[in-house]
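Chain A, query sequence.
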Amino acid sequence: MAYAAVLSLAQTAGKMILDQDRYPISRNKKQQIRSIYEPFIFLQEFLEDFPEKANILDGRIRDLAYEAEGVLESFMLGEAKSHWWTVLASKFKFKHQMGKIRAEADSITREVMAIKNNSSDAVQLGDSSVAGSSPSRLAPVTKIDYVVGLHEDLLEIKSRLCGESPNLQVITIVGMGGIGKTTLAKCAYDDPLTVQQFDIRAWVTVSQDYNAEVIFSSLLASMEEFNTESSERSSENVFKTLKGRRYLIVMDDIWSTEAWDAVRYILPDDGNGSRVMLTTRETSVAAYADHLSPLHEMRLMEEGQSWNLLRQMVFAHQDCPPELENIGKEVARCCKGLPLTIVVVAGILSTMDNNLASWRKIAQDVNSVTVGGQCEKILSLSYTHLPHYLRSCFLYMGGFPEDYEVPVSKLIRLWVAEGFLRRPKGSKTLEEEAGECLEDLVKRNLVLVTKKKSDGRIKSCSLHDLMRDLCIKKAHEEKFLMNLSSRNVTNFISVEGKNNQRRVSVTPSSLPHFSKIYCLSTMHTILCFHRISVANTLERFRLLRVLDARDVYVSSLPDELFDLFHLVYLAIYYLGGLASAISKLRSLQTLHLRAKNEWKLFRSHCVCLPPEIWMMPQLRHLVFYGRLPDPEGRTTPGLDNLQTLSIVSHAMCSERVLRMIRNLKKLEIDCSDSEVCLNNLVHLHQLEDLKLRSSSSNAFYQKDMFAFPRMLKRLTLSRVPLPWEEMTIVGSLSNLRVLKLTYQACKGNKWETTEGEFPHLEFLLIEKSDLCLWITESSHFPLLKRLVLDDCWQLAEIPEDIGEIPTLELIEVKGKAVMSLVESVKRIQEEQQGWGNDALQIRCMTHR
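Chain A, predicted structure.
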C-alpha cells in the first residue's frame, strides 16, 4: 500500500542523507536524493488528510515509491562499481532514473492538487469524519453485553453441560464463520455455574492447520496446576491428568474428523459427568464426534436482535439519539443477521460523528455490498474506512498463522521496526504510539483481544478467520505482504510482481512455496513460523530489514547475517557466543535470541555478548539469557534508546552499567546467586516494569539488598528472599499498580501491612506461598481491584476488611487451599451482598 511504501522510502532516503560514515556520498548526490523524496512528503500528507480520495491514486503512489526506493537501494549496495566504465554508466543510469521518477512524482502531485482544490469542502461533506478519525474520537471501551441474541442458546448449552447424565458427552456447536460459535462457547465456559461444576476446564483452538502434539501441549498448559508429576507434554500425560476428575474440554474451530480422532482416545469416561464441547463450521465433523447427541446449530440474528447488538456496540449503555434510530435499524437490517458483520459495521460507526448524513452514507455503503449476500465485501468496508496510517498495521496481521495468538510486545516491536508509525508528538515513544494504533484496531472490531494483562492492557490478539482471509487477500492485492500459506499464492508470485514484493510469511503449510521467494531480491521482511534453514538464504536478501524466526533454533550464526546492514529487527533462537561483528548491524533496534518458555535453560545456556554491543546506539529491545559485558574503560555514551532488557544476571547491576542504560522501561533479572545486591536500581528513573527471578530457593536476605525506582508500575518477585516484614520497601512505591509474588517470593508466615502503603495498587497476586497469617485493613489497599491467591496452602483466611475496599471487583482463590480460606471468601461475598454490593465477583477453583 502507498502509505507504507512512502514511509519505507523515507527510511531509506534518510539513512543515505544522514549516515555519512556508511554512505560517504557527495553533497550534490544528497541533494538529488532530497529532490526525489520531497514530493513524497507532500503525497504522504495527502494520504493522511484525504484517505478516501487517495484511494484512486494509491497504487500509482505505491509503485512509484517502491521504484524510487529500489533505485536508492541499488546505489547503496554499490552494484556496478567494479570498473571505471560501469561507474560512469551507473551514474548516467542513476541520473536518468531519478529524472523519470521526479517527472512521475510531479505528475501525481498535480493530480493531487486538483483533487484537493475540488475537495475544499471535504470536511463538511463528511470525508474526514468517516475515515480520518483520530483515536480520541472513538467510543469509550465499556463493558457490553455481547451475548445479545444468544441468551436462549446459552441456557441450552449450560443445561447440557451441567445436566445429570454421568456419561461423557460431546456437545457440538455448528454454524457459519462469524455467527458467534466461539462467543457462545466462551460464555458457557466462563459462566460461574460451569466453573463450579468442573474440576478441570481446558480450552484449545484447533484450526485447519492442526498438529496433535500442539493440541496436547495446549491442553496440559491449561491444566498445569493439576499436572504435578511430569513436565512432558504428551497424550499419556493428558490422560493421567484427566483421569478421575470431572473435566470440561473445549475444542474450538475444529475442521476435520482426523483432528477429533487424534484426541478422543485420551479423554477418559469415568462416569462423573465430564463434557467435551466442539465448535465447527462442518456439520459432518460435528455429527462424527458424537452421533447420539443433538447438534446445536447457530441461527442468524433476527432484525430486532441485530439492532440491539449494533446499538450496544456503538453507544454502550447510552441511549441512541432519536434521529439516528431509523437509519441505525436500516444499517442493522443490511447486515443480514451475521453477528461478525454487525460488529465490524459498529466499529466503523464508532469512529464517526453521530449525525444523520454520516450514518446515511454508511447505510448506502452497507446496502450496496450486501445485495448478493457477500460477506467479504461488507467486511472490506472496515478496511476502506481505515486511515492510511492504520492500514499497514492491519494488513501486517495477515502474516501470522491461522488462530495464532500474537503477543502484543512482539507485534509492537515489528510495527516499529517496519516504520509504519507516524512520529509521535511530545514525549510519547514509538512503542506507545503503536499501542494506541492497536487499541484503535480493537475498538474498530478488526482485531480480537485474546488475553489481557493483570493491569488490563492487551497481552495477545488475533484475527477472526473471515477477517484474516480478507487481510491476506488485501495484502496480496496491494503487494504489501505474501502469506505463502494462501491458496492463491502462486498467482501473486508472478514475473511482473517480483520486484515489488517486500514481505513474506512462512508457515508450516507454506513450505512447498518457500523456494519461490529466493529470487525476490527486494525482500525486506521474512516472518518465519517453522523450523527451516534460514541461514543459507540470507545472501539472497541483502536488503532485509526484519527477520523474525523466533522459534527457529540455530547452532551458529552465519557470516552472511552480519552483512545485512539494513537489519532493524532480528529474532532467532540462539544459545552461544555472539561475534563482535554484531556491531556492524548499526540499524538494529530489536535483538531477540530467546525462544518462548525457556527459563529452565538459562542457568546452563547463557549467551555471551561482546563488548561491541555498546556500539549499537539504535538498540531498543534486547532479549537473551546472559549478562551485559562490563563497559569499563569504554567512551561510548551508552544505549540511551534501550527500553527492554531481559533476562540478565544481577551482576550487571553496577551503577556504571545502569547509568549507560538509564532509559530502560522493562527489566528482568536473574537473582539466583547467593550474594545479590540490587540497590543501584534506583538509578533507572524511567523503569516501569521489573521482574526479579531466582531458580534457587536458598538465597538469603541481607539488609539494603533491594531499592526500587520510584516510577515502578509493575513488580514481579519470584523466589526472591524478601521477608514479609520488609514489604514496606514495596508498599512505599507510590506508582505501583501491579504486584505479583510467586514461588514463595517472601519469607516468613505473617504479613502485616501498615497505613499509607500500596496507595495505587490495583492487582495483587500471591502464588505458591506458605503464608499463614495476613493482617491488613481496607485503607491499606485503597484502590485494589483484583486479588488472586493461587496455591496458598497454609493461609487460613482472607482478612474481612478486604471486602470493604470500594474498588474491589474480584477475589479469586485457586489451587491448593484449606477449607477455611474458601469459607472466609464466601463470607465476604455474603456480607457484601447484604450491603447491596452485587458487583464483587468470587471465584473458587481449589483442591486440597
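The longest strand covers residues 546-554. The chain has 27 helices and 29 strands.
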